[in-house]
Amino acid sequence: MKARVRWVGDAMFLGESGSGHTVVMDGPPDHGGRNLGVRPMEMLLLGIGGCSSFDVVDILKKSRQNVEHCEVILEAERADEVPAVFTKVNLHFIVAGTALKDSVVKRAVALSAEKYCSASIMFGRAGVEITHSYEIREGLAIQA
Protein backbone atom coordinates (compact mmCIF):
# COMPACT_ATOMS: atom_id res chain seq x y z
CA MET A 1 0.00 0.00 0.00
CA LYS A 2 1.28 3.43 -0.89
CA ALA A 3 0.07 6.99 -0.45
CA ARG A 4 1.36 10.50 -0.94
CA VAL A 5 0.72 13.65 1.05
CA ARG A 6 1.53 16.98 -0.59
CA TRP A 7 1.69 20.35 1.14
CA VAL A 8 -0.30 22.94 -0.83
CA GLY A 9 0.17 25.98 1.40
CA ASP A 10 -0.50 27.32 4.86
CA ALA A 11 -1.57 24.26 6.90
CA MET A 12 -3.29 22.47 4.02
CA PHE A 13 -2.23 19.12 2.60
CA LEU A 14 -3.62 16.85 -0.12
CA GLY A 15 -3.51 13.16 0.64
CA GLU A 16 -3.50 10.91 -2.41
CA SER A 17 -4.21 7.22 -1.93
CA GLY A 18 -2.62 4.46 -3.91
CA SER A 19 -6.05 3.72 -5.36
CA GLY A 20 -6.21 7.21 -6.88
CA HIS A 21 -8.41 9.11 -4.44
CA THR A 22 -7.66 12.50 -2.94
CA VAL A 23 -8.61 14.01 0.40
CA VAL A 24 -8.02 17.50 1.76
CA MET A 25 -6.49 17.92 5.21
CA ASP A 26 -6.27 21.35 6.81
CA GLY A 27 -5.51 22.85 10.17
CA PRO A 28 -7.52 25.26 12.27
CA PRO A 29 -7.00 29.01 11.88
CA ASP A 30 -5.04 29.22 15.16
CA HIS A 31 -2.47 26.90 13.56
CA GLY A 32 -2.29 28.68 10.21
CA GLY A 33 -5.04 26.74 8.47
CA ARG A 34 -8.32 27.77 6.93
CA ASN A 35 -10.45 24.89 8.24
CA LEU A 36 -11.11 23.61 4.71
CA GLY A 37 -10.51 19.92 5.40
CA VAL A 38 -10.37 17.29 8.09
CA ARG A 39 -7.53 17.25 10.59
CA PRO A 40 -4.99 14.42 10.27
CA MET A 41 -6.02 12.88 13.61
CA GLU A 42 -9.65 13.01 12.50
CA MET A 43 -8.58 11.04 9.42
CA LEU A 44 -7.20 8.33 11.68
CA LEU A 45 -10.46 8.18 13.62
CA LEU A 46 -12.46 8.05 10.38
CA GLY A 47 -10.18 5.25 9.20
CA ILE A 48 -10.94 3.17 12.28
CA GLY A 49 -14.68 3.74 11.75
CA GLY A 50 -14.55 2.95 8.05
CA CYS A 51 -12.47 -0.18 8.51
CA SER A 52 -14.68 -1.58 11.26
CA SER A 53 -17.94 -0.61 9.52
CA PHE A 54 -16.80 -2.37 6.35
CA ASP A 55 -16.25 -5.54 8.40
CA VAL A 56 -19.56 -5.36 10.26
CA VAL A 57 -21.64 -4.85 7.10
CA ASP A 58 -19.71 -7.55 5.23
CA ILE A 59 -20.20 -10.07 8.06
CA LEU A 60 -23.90 -9.24 8.35
CA LYS A 61 -24.44 -9.67 4.61
CA LYS A 62 -22.58 -12.99 4.61
CA SER A 63 -24.75 -14.04 7.56
CA ARG A 64 -27.83 -13.36 5.42
CA GLN A 65 -29.02 -10.51 7.62
CA ASN A 66 -31.29 -7.94 5.98
CA VAL A 67 -29.11 -4.98 6.95
CA GLU A 68 -30.34 -1.70 5.45
CA HIS A 69 -28.27 0.83 7.37
CA CYS A 70 -25.12 0.86 9.43
CA GLU A 71 -23.34 3.77 10.98
CA VAL A 72 -20.74 4.04 13.70
CA ILE A 73 -20.43 6.93 16.11
CA LEU A 74 -16.85 7.30 17.27
CA GLU A 75 -15.69 9.10 20.37
CA ALA A 76 -12.02 9.45 21.16
CA GLU A 77 -9.94 10.86 23.97
CA ARG A 78 -6.43 12.15 23.46
CA ALA A 79 -3.51 12.65 25.80
CA ASP A 80 -3.13 16.15 27.21
CA GLU A 81 0.59 16.28 26.46
CA VAL A 82 2.47 16.19 23.17
CA PRO A 83 2.29 13.87 21.38
CA ALA A 84 -1.50 14.06 21.83
CA VAL A 85 -2.07 10.41 20.93
CA PHE A 86 -5.41 8.68 21.23
CA THR A 87 -5.84 7.09 24.65
CA LYS A 88 -9.41 5.79 24.26
CA VAL A 89 -11.71 5.17 21.31
CA ASN A 90 -15.30 3.96 21.49
CA LEU A 91 -17.13 2.70 18.43
CA HIS A 92 -20.91 2.63 18.81
CA PHE A 93 -22.65 0.90 15.92
CA ILE A 94 -26.24 1.66 14.97
CA VAL A 95 -27.48 -1.10 12.71
CA ALA A 96 -30.90 -1.08 11.11
CA GLY A 97 -32.75 -3.58 9.01
CA THR A 98 -35.58 -6.08 9.02
CA ALA A 99 -35.56 -8.94 11.53
CA LEU A 100 -31.90 -8.51 12.45
CA LYS A 101 -30.72 -11.08 14.99
CA ASP A 102 -29.04 -9.58 18.05
CA SER A 103 -26.63 -12.50 18.33
CA VAL A 104 -25.47 -12.04 14.72
CA VAL A 105 -24.95 -8.29 15.09
CA LYS A 106 -23.08 -8.86 18.35
CA ARG A 107 -20.89 -11.45 16.64
CA ALA A 108 -20.20 -9.14 13.67
CA VAL A 109 -19.06 -6.33 15.96
CA ALA A 110 -16.92 -8.74 18.00
CA LEU A 111 -15.30 -10.30 14.93
CA SER A 112 -14.43 -6.88 13.57
CA ALA A 113 -12.96 -5.85 16.93
CA GLU A 114 -11.03 -9.03 17.62
CA LYS A 115 -10.07 -10.40 14.22
CA TYR A 116 -10.66 -8.30 11.13
CA CYS A 117 -10.36 -4.53 11.65
CA SER A 118 -6.68 -3.89 11.09
CA ALA A 119 -6.99 -0.24 12.11
CA SER A 120 -8.61 -0.69 15.51
CA ILE A 121 -6.51 -3.77 16.31
CA MET A 122 -3.34 -1.83 15.46
CA PHE A 123 -4.35 1.02 17.78
CA GLY A 124 -5.26 -1.46 20.51
CA ARG A 125 -1.84 -3.09 20.28
CA ALA A 126 -0.32 0.38 20.64
CA GLY A 127 -2.06 0.79 23.99
CA VAL A 128 -5.20 2.65 22.96
CA GLU A 129 -8.24 1.46 24.92
CA ILE A 130 -10.72 0.43 22.19
CA THR A 131 -14.33 -0.31 23.17
CA HIS A 132 -17.33 -1.32 21.07
CA SER A 133 -21.07 -1.16 21.56
CA TYR A 134 -24.08 -1.50 19.29
CA GLU A 135 -27.79 -1.04 18.99
CA ILE A 136 -30.29 -2.46 16.56
CA ARG A 137 -33.17 -0.54 15.08
CA GLU A 138 -35.98 -2.00 13.03
CA GLY A 139 -36.14 -0.77 9.42
CA LEU A 140 -34.50 2.51 8.51
CA ALA A 141 -35.32 4.29 11.77
CA ILE A 142 -32.09 6.27 11.82
CA GLN A 143 -31.91 9.94 12.65
CA ALA A 144 -29.46 12.16 10.81
CATH architecture of the largest domain: 2-Layer Sandwich
The top level CATH class name of the largest domain: Alpha Beta
From the N-terminal CA to the C-terminal CA, the straight-line distance is 34 Å
Main sheet overview: 3 strands, antiparallel
Number of domains: 2
**Radius of gyration, rounded?**
17 Å
Beta-strand fraction estimate = 35-45%
Shape, principal axes of CA atoms? elongated
Could you state the oligomeric state of the chains shown? single chain
Strand order of the largest sheet: 1-2-3
Helix-strand topology string: EEEHEEHHE
Structure, described:
With 144 residues, the protein is α+β, with helices and mostly antiparallel strands. It has 2 domains: 1-38, N-terminal domain of TfIIb (Single Sheet); 40-138, GMP Synthetase, Chain A, domain 3, CATH 3.30.300.20. 32% of the residues lie in helices and 38% in strands. It is built from 3 helices and 6 strands, in the order E-E-E-H-E-E-H-H-E. The chain has helices at 40-62, 102-116, 118-125; strands spanning 3-9, 12-17, 22-26, 66-78, 86-98, 129-138. The strands form 2 sheets. The chain has a 3-stranded antiparallel β-sheet, with no helix packed on it. The chain is elongated and about 50 Å long.
